[in-house]
Design goal:
It is a single chain. The protein has 4 helices and 21 strands. The chain has 356 residues and is mostly beta strands. The protein folds into 3 domains: 74 residues, no CATH class; 177 residues, Beta Barrel (Lipocalin), CATH 2.40.128.100; 59 residues, no CATH class. Strands 1, 8, 9, 10, 11, 12, 13, 14, 15, 16, 17, 18 and 19 form a 13-stranded antiparallel sheet that branches.
Length: 356
């Protein structure tokens, strides 16, 4: 009898000791990264990340073709074997020539206009060594050059709309111009610079008007100012207008945070060049561009810090939520998390090259 009572008492003390040990929070709990979740079922990002998630940055590089156009109907034009000059009168009413009037106009009084042939539309002459004076007909000086643009933009995105600001830097090549509709024996105009730089600063606004599978289609507009190299276009002679750009970018969505951008666009801008005679000439400088770049958004959640975590979706660890993929992959694939060939890989640019 005494022995059985001893066994009952011993068992009671052992159970009591184990219960107290298990109830101790510092010794009885083991960290479980998968739970339990907090009472609030929706674990939200902090305020900073909610705001930052609406911002994106875009960087791109491409090719552009600059088109120059001048209306010279108010001037007589002198053409010799190699150059074009505008004819004007100096303060003494003498006829002088103005050369290089696109960017650095200069005056010369060495032109022999008396021996020049007055150009007519039905002229049969074809001697490029002769000099000609063009007084009638429509006189449009047109031509172009090449450009390499690089831009950086910051957008605030809300629903289908976005607002932002940006800067574009261009390397521009030499300008080659000719009188539209005139024969080859009339000289061409070549700029005195081999290259120049353009800087553009602007505000931008856009709207996403269509989505198809992984592609989004936008219409964007830019408005701002531009500056060109002082070495090629001195500020005392050349002034610039405001700058407009209209583009229709197409974005390939690799994830909700990472996109490839194809951006065709057209620039609308002009310069005014002051002549030594006091007049000014306007030059329209349209620029057709195509750029390729990327747009990256600030992620809503941090990357999961657990190195061996296999979750591919956005997921929870106790009281915080993390993303399971790098920013260039979808955070919520529509297939099983452990599928070896998941939707993220199917959305890659060249999935057939990936080793299975």
């Amino acid at each position: 009898m005494g022995r059985s009572q001893f066994n009952i008492k011993s068992s009671f003390y052992i159970i009591l000791f184990l219960g107290c040990f298990a109830s101790m929070p510092s010794m009885g709990q083991v960290f479980n990264p998968w739970g339990p979740p907090p009472n609030d079922k929706d674990i939200d990002a902090n305020f900073f990340r909610k705001i930052a998630n609406h911002f994106s940055a875009e960087v791109a590089i491409g090719y552009g073709s600059t088109r120059y156009r001048q209306n010279l109907d108010d001037y007589q034009i002198y053409s010799n074997d190699s150059r074009l000059y505008l004819l004007a009168e100096d303060s003494m009413a003498n006829t002088v020539g103005i050369g290089n009037w696109l960017n650095k106009p200069f005056v010369t009084d060495t032109l022999d206009t008396n021996s020049a042939i007055m150009y007519q539309n039905n002229l049969n002459e074809s001697d490029q060594n002769r000099s000609y004076v063009i007084d009638s007909l429509e006189k449009r000086l047109v031509g172009g050059g090449n450009a390499i643009p690089i831009h950086l933009k910051i957008h605030f995105n809300y629903d289908r709309y976005r607002l932002g600001a940006g800067a574009t830097f261009e390397i521009n090549s030499k300008a080659n111009l000719k009188l539209k509709g005139f024969p080859n024996f009339i000289a061409n105009y070549e700029s005195d610079f081999s290259r120049f730089f353009t800087r553009k600063y602007y505000l931008t606004a856009g709207v996403r008007y269509y989505d198809f599978w992984d592609f989004s289609y936008f219409a964007d507009i830019e408005y701002g100012s531009f500056r060109i190299s002082e070495s090629a276009f001195p500020g005392e002679s050349v002034s610039t207008s405001n700058y407009w750009n209209v583009s229709l970018p197409i974005e390939k969505n690799f994830s909700e945070y990472f996109r490839l951008v194809l951006r065709p666009s057209v620039d609308l801008k002009s310069i005014n060049t002051l002549m030594p005679t006091g007049q000014s000439i306007k030059t329209n400088m349209w620029n057709l561009q195509f750029q390729v770049g990327v747009r990256v958004s600030f992620p809503l959640f941090k990357k999961c810090p657990i190195s061996n975590c296999e979750a591919q979706k956005e997921h929870r660890h106790v009281d915080k939520k993390y993303r399971g993929q790098p920013i260039y992959k979808w955070q919520n694939p529509k297939v099983g998390e452990n599928d070896p060939y998941n939707l993220n890989e199917k959305r890659e640019a060249f999935p057939f090259l990936k080793r299975k």
